[in-house]
Structure formats: C-alpha cells, structure tokens
Design goal:
Blueprint lengths: L5 E6 L14 H16 L3 E6 L2 H4 L3 H4 L4 H25 L4 E5 L8 E2 L2 H9 L3 E5 L9 H11 L4 E6 L4 E2 L11 E2 L1 E2 L1 H6 L7 H10 L3 E5 L5 H6 L6 E3 L1
Parallel strand pairs: 1-2, 1-6, 2-5, 3-4, 3-5, 6-10, 9-11
Antiparallel strand pairs: 7-8, 10-11
Helix pairs in contact: 1-4, 6-8
C-alpha cells in the first residue's frame, strides 16, 4: 500500500547524465523511467521536475559573462530537453506521460495549466513539469515546490547523490552526521543547502514535507513511495 496518493519527484539534471559530467545517458534515463513507472503503476500519482544542470554545465563558462536573465532562460530550456528525454523513455516502456512547459512551445509540450495537470495525474499519467516557473532568479527547487503546492502533492521527494541530510557534506567529511528527521527551521538556520532557502520556506509555510533520499540506490523511489524509511524527512 502506497504511503502517498500524489507526490512530486525532484530530479537533478545530473541524474540523467549517468557518470558523465554533462549530457544525457540513455541507459540511465531508461533505468530512471522504469523506477518512476513502477511507482505510478502502484497507484501513486507522480509529478516530476527535472533540473537542467547536465545540459547547462556544458555552456556554463560562456554563461558567466551573460546577463543573468538570459542565462536563466537558457537553463529553463535545458530542463525542457531533459523533460522530453524522460518522457520519451517512459513512453517507450508503455507508460503515458505529459510534458507541461511553463514557457509556451506548442509543438513541443503542453502549456502548464494547473487544472489540466491535476486531471492528467488523476488519469494515471506521469506529468513532467518543464521550464521551471518561467521566471528568472528562481531555481528548479523552487519550481518543484510551487508545482507540488499547486497540484496538492502529499510530499516532495528530492533525489540526491547522498542518502539524506547531513550536518556537512558527507562526500568530503566521512564523520558527517546524518539526520533521520529535521525541521525546516533547522535546515534554514544551519544553512544545510538541501534545497534553496526560498523552497524550504515555502514548504514550511504550507506544511509540505520533503524527503531527501539517494537516487543511486536502485529501488529507492519505490521504497520512499511505500513509506519506508529512506533518507531524511524535513517537516
């Protein structure tokens, strides 16, 4: 029995790159698609927000000299590329999806309309929200939080390279302490950098829990959706 009726899965762009520095690794995307489809097949309504780092890192050096708004728009378009890649992988294994873009591009994706997104979820389709919020200066973490609140998701599942929230970077400090549970205020006051401060504050104000878990452990998405203790819960 699933622990959540509806969840918002936040993936980094790097998750689609596999072991590469940037780009899209087809086998990794297919593996992710199979795990997400398994959760949806279990009766959970799944929305997904994918970052654009794997595409945008490749032009990051050039972007440093660009206007911030222009660079942010490029990042939004990178998320559209990733969303289409994930959608294609899901469709190839037989699971219906919809890509909904905050920037209108009718030939590529549906425009984001809240009520339509909820209807797609109710029909069992996986909805992938692309192009962030369409506004510069907002991260994909903030976009994920906004979409989760709009579709009334029960939880945000933040997929990372580590198995939860630590008091410092466990990849650099082996003695780092892992939290099983932590409050929004503790995350903000300690500057833990799990998600940006805007998204954490939005979750706090609307009492939307966040689960931070390791995406690189096979089956973790399903375990999280079934309510098993994986990673750290922020609430």
């Amino acid at each position: 029995m699933a622990a959540y009726q509806r969840l918002l899965l936040k993936l980094s762009g790097e998750a689609l790159a596999g072991g590469g520095a940037f780009g899209i690794h087809a086998d990794r995307v297919r593996q992710l698609a199979m795990e997400v489809a398994e959760v949806a097949a279990a009766g959970v309504q799944v929305g997904v927000v994918v970052g654009g780092g794997n595409i945008f890192r490749g032009v990051a050096a050039a972007a440093q000299k660009m206007d911030r708004v222009t660079a942010d728009h490029m990042g939004m378009l990178a998320t559209v590329i990733n969303s289409l890649a994930l959608s294609d992988a899901l469709e190839q294994i037989g699971h219906p999806t919809r890509v909904m873009s905050a920037i209108e591009m009718h030939q590529v994706a549906e425009p984001y309309i809240r009520r339509r997104a909820i209807r797609h979820l109710e029909k069992g389709r996986i909805v992938i929200f692309a192009a962030g919020t369409s506004n510069p200066y907002f991260s994909t973490d903030t976009a994920a939080t906004l979409r989760a609140l709009e579709i009334k998701a029960d939880v945000i599942a933040k997929a990372t390279r580590v198995d939860g929230v630590y008091d410092k970077d466990p990849l650099k400090f082996p003695e780092a302490l892992k939290y099983e549970q932590i409050t929004y205020l503790e995350v903000l006051s300690q500057g833990l950098g799990v998600m940006d401060a805007t998204s954490i504050a939005m979750c706090r104000d609307n009492r939307l829990p966040i689960i931070v878990f390791n995406l690189n452990t096979a089956g973790n998405i399903m375990r999280m959706a079934m309510g098993e203790q994986v990673g750290t819960i922020i609430q």
